[in-house]
Amino acid sequence: MDESLDYRQKLIEEYKRTTVPLLKYLPWLEKNAGQQGSTLYQGNGENQNALRFPVYDATLMGFVREAAASPLMYRNYSYVYTRNGIRTHEDERKVIAGAELKDWDLLRGILSRYVLGGRTKAALWSEAVKENIFCLVLERMQKIIEYWDKPLDIR
After folding, report:
1. Counting runs of H as helices and runs of E as strands, what totals does the chain give?
2. Which of 22, 49, 109, 130 has a CA-to-CA distance to 91 between 20 and 30 Å?
């Protein structure tokens, strides 16, 4: 029994170490939930219709860069979606809301889909902010850590 408690505590410490640096973005993600997180640059004058591309908020880009470099990234995130029958944003929200300690990799998979997938389909970053996915995943990770350890002094 003592061995399983030690293992769980080590697991929680590892989860805390990887998650806490990203929690500093939580206030921005909460504030911008439902919004795009980017604007569309259209040029000016004669070049107005030449080339349009998204310009992302600096805070969102900081979050994406830091998350992409963290151990939270799970390169096989597509398996999380197929194994759990996740197809819509509503499915994602249900899975996130019901996630527990044993579902940590599931949360990592959802986060990774948007962070890593956004490298090739950049609209995913804006979609994750608009659909509140980044915020929900980080809040759930924080709740799991706090349930098994102690409240985090983030803000």
Report:
1. 8, 2
2. 22
- Name the 3-class secondary structure at 88: coil
Distance CA 34, CA 30 (A): 9
60 in Cβ contact with 129 (< 8 Å): yes
H or E stretch at 77:
helix 77-83
The β-bridge partners of 54 are 40
Question: Rounded to 5 degrees, what angle do the CA atoms 99, 19, 54 make?
Answer: 95
pLDDT digits (tens, 9 = 90+) for 17-53: 999 999 999 999 999 888 766 555 556 655 556 666 6
Residues, the chain: 155
Instruction: Enter the DSSP assignment of 26.
Output: H
DSSP reduced 3-state for 117: helix
Strand partners, 40: 54
Query: What's the helix, strand, coil split of the chain in %, to 5?
Result: 65, 5, 30
The tally of CA atoms less than 13 A away on the side-chain side of residue 93 is: 7
Q: What is the pTM of this model?
A: 0.88
CA-atom Rg of the chain in angstroms? 17
